[in-house]
Amino acid sequence: MSHETDDTRRLLRESAADFVARSDIGAAVRAWRHKPEGFDAQRWSEMVQLGWVGLRAPEEAGGTGLGLEDLVALLAETGRGVGPEPLSAVGVLAVRTLAASAGGAQTLGGACEGGRIPAVAWQEKPGALSAGECDTRAARAGDDWILSGAKDFVHGAAQADVFVVSARAPGGVALFELRRNEPGLTVETRFFTDGTTCHRLVLRDVRVPASACIAAPGEGEEALDAALEETRIAVSAEMLGLARQALEMTLDYLRQRKQFGKAIGSFQALQHRAVDLYVTTQIMQSAVDRAARTFEAADARERALIASACKARCSDGALAIAKEAIQLHGAIGYTDEHNIGLYVRRALVLASWLGNGAQHRKRFAALSPALDLV
Amino acid sequence: MSQTELRYDYDAMTDAEFRKMVRDFIEAECPAEIRHLPRRIRWREVKPWSLKLSKRGWIAPAWPKEYGGMGMSVAKQIAFVEELDRAGVPRAPDMGIVMIGPLLIRFGTEEQRRKYLPRIVSCEDVWCQGYSEPNSGSDLASLRTEAVLDGDHWVVNGQKTWTTLAQDANWIFMLVRTDKGAKKQEGISFLLVDINTPGVTRRPIMTLGGHEEFCETFFDNVRVPKENIVGRVNEGWTMAKALLGFERIFLGSPKLSQVALNRLALLGRATGAFKDDRFRDKFTQLRLDVADLTETYARFADILKRGEQLGPDVSILKIFATATYQKITETMVETAAENGALDEAAPYGNETLDVLAHYWLARPATIYGGSSEVQKNIVAKAVLDLPG
User: Fold this and answer.
1) pTM of the predicted model, to two decimals?
2) Min Cα separation B353/chain A (Å)
3) What does the alpha-carbon distance between residue B208 and residue B363 come to, in Å, rounded to a whole number?
4) List of domains in chain B
5) Prediction ipTM score
6) What residue spans define the domains of chain A?
7) Residues of A whose CB is below 8 A from B388
8) Residue B229 contacts residue B172 (beta carbons within 8 Å)
9) How far apart are CA A311 and CA A147, in angstroms?
10) How far is A335 from chain B (nearest CA, A)?
11) Do A351 and A315 touch, CB atoms closer than 8 A?
12) CB atoms A374 and B383 under 8 Å
């Protein structure tokens, strides 16, 4: 690693740590949870200014043009704050999808400078893992396209002004840009357990011009799959950050809480459980490091394997630490007023997003012959 | 000093050249029948190979050249060990090379170095380690084997146990109590004892794996020359601790898990277990454990390669490595069904596999070299800053 990249990552970590430390984590999350607006526009624009949203966009598109190892360094720090801002949904999934789409440049530039907020609507059924699982249809009508179908589990779209929607056309899966107020498009808002928005889109004969098709039939699937794989690693880095923070909060509690005349953290039964959680964070870090280091040079099949290995480890690790954090906090850990619950809720959401541990182990096994050992 | 046939500047070689040189030598010289053994090898079996390494100047990769070592960087030392591991080269009784040699180089007198080091390099002397006692295991500093000065000799009385391959050794280095009044860590000295001195008796102990891997070693008025103490009297504990470096990462090596995972894959293919979803999920989980263990090991190895010291957090490597290793061997037993209860190898396709040999080999991994529980105590206090 050169000194320059070393410095870049250190600066990213420091500014992210500073960003998290500047606000009261509990207040920042509670102020916006279960609200349709989703997050603080001011904080989002600060993230844009810091270059975080366009971190993975090429410089010629208005981005920062940094690598995946830089991205995970950033997200492992911001992840500690469990803020509702959609850094992975917009800054990774949307940015990478647009960057890989022939017609994505304009929206990508807007996202990087903050004027636009794109969200990707690709998933239809729970448990879907790939762009090819797409029943939404796109049919030609003269020069226009007509789209019909439904999308679900759209992350980070609370303030999205444009949706990148996948649809199956005669030549394969294509990607389209739809304005939020597009006639025929219904946007329903639900909430995930961490209070962030979960959107469902219903498309009833939505008619868009040819220029709305940003990735041609057949090209959209590859662009989207590549972005999904990378987002799995990004979300894993966020889970690493939240797991570390949840562990540190738990350790603080073990040091302070007194019963039977001493700090409960002096009890060996609890110390060993705390160490097990620490081991888990270390192993998660290894999974994220390896994925970030090897992903960009890998081919499509290897990328799926790398992303699955990473997401399986981090999903399971974050959930394990979350549930132990509740137990080690005792009754206060089960209350909504204590911040540890914010970490448990976020762990549940991120662990399931883009595939949980069991799904990814299954995919890993399916993609990889038994002989071909890691 | 034994003369080596070849004098390379190993650090001037590229990593690839160096590895190829090591690999070629192993392929040409290390017999297949001693490789990939699921047990500790005995000295009589491994001696011919050790002599070849000795003759080549490769018996002590971590030692400086002036003492007959390879005098190379930590990065090259790690590459060397990795190549031996990859080829399944057995670990000879190597306490002279990994423990007492480095200790003498660092703390010994010039006379001690001249006396002992050449005989280690030439394989004339085989050393064993006398640390644990029947009542001093995890709490090693409570040890009670005593050495009392009588004229020009220390008189040693007491008992050591779990002395690995003491029956193959002719020297033992040991921690002995030389001041009963001091705080327990402060009254301990480091003593070198010729195992054939009158009063030393060894009783081999049979393990669950069916091998006589270690001994009980008894000391009954054993007279040891006064000059056989290393460093200053009552400073043995500090010296023994100062030696922990490469060994701490060695115990967290992914090698044993990698080998066991390969055997589990063989079992899965031969029995058709890969068609079973439950086995596939379990196998994949173990496989990812091994992948992440390998990455974690590399992360700690990088610290050493940069010339920095390992912190107490390296304990997590041993905790995770040994837990993973055990889980793999337990899955082997489960997958093998009745063959997992056999005291011998069973045929699988063109190969045979002794499932229980792997299972038994894995059991003590969480006990030796600081049990997992002791490692967790260390991490809890020294890394997580939890109260005593």
Assistant:
1) 0.92
2) 17
3) 9
4) 10-92 (1.10.540.10), 127-234 (2.40.110.10), 246-383 (1.20.140.10)
5) 0.92
6) 3-116, 120-216, 221-367
7) 266
8) no
9) 32
10) 24
11) yes
12) no
pLDDT-derived band at B9 (thresholds 50, 70, 90) equals confident
Give the chain B residue nearest A305 (alpha carbons). B288
Q: Average model confidence (pLDDT) for chain B?
A: 93
Distance CA B380, CA B388 (A): 9
Say which of A262, A279, A365 has its CB closest to residue B280.
Answer: A365
Question: Annotated catalytic residue: which of B17, B66, B227, B247?
Answer: B247
Superfamily for domain range A120-216 = Butyryl-CoA Dehydrogenase, subunit A, domain 2 (2.40.110.10)
Q: Which residues have CB under 8 Å from A150's CB, separation 6+? A: A124, A136, A200, A201, A202, A203
- Whether residue A332 contacts residue A326, with contact meaning beta carbons closer than 8 Å, is answered with no
CATH number of A221-367: 1.20.140.10
From first to last of its 374 residues, chain A has per-residue pLDDT tens of 567 788 999 999 999 999 999 999 999 999 999 999 999 999 999 999 999 999 999 999 999 999 999 999 999 999 999 999 999 999 999 999 999 999 999 999 999 999 999 999 999 999 999 999 999 999 999 999 999 999 999 999 999 999 999 999 999 999 999 999 999 999 999 999 999 999 999 999 999 999 999 999 999 999 999 999 999 999 999 999 999 999 999 999 999 999 999 999 999 999 999 999 999 999 999 999 999 999 999 999 999 999 999 999 999 999 999 999 999 999 999 999 999 999 999 999 999 999 999 999 999 999 986 554 43
- Which residue type sits at B260? A
Q: Is residue B330 among the annotated active site residues?
A: no
Of B313, B320, B386, the CB nearest to A274: B386
- Determine the CATH number of domain A3-116: 1.10.540.10
Residue among B246, B230, B261, B247 at smallest CA distance from B325 = B261
Question: Band of the pLDDT at B379, cuts 50, 70, 90?
Answer: very high
How far away is chain B from the Cα of A21, in angstroms, using its nearest Cα? 21
Question: Concatenated DSSP letters for A125-186?
Answer: STT--STT----EEEEETTEEEEEEEEEEEES-TT-SEEEEEEEETTEEEEEEEETT-TTEE
Count other Cβ atoms within 10 Å, centred on residue B90: 18
CB contact under 8 A, A365 and B284: yes
Would an 8 Å CB–CB cutoff place B270 in contact with chain A?
no
- Please answer whether residues A344 and A335 qualify as being in contact, where contact means their C-beta atoms are separated by less than 8 angstroms: no
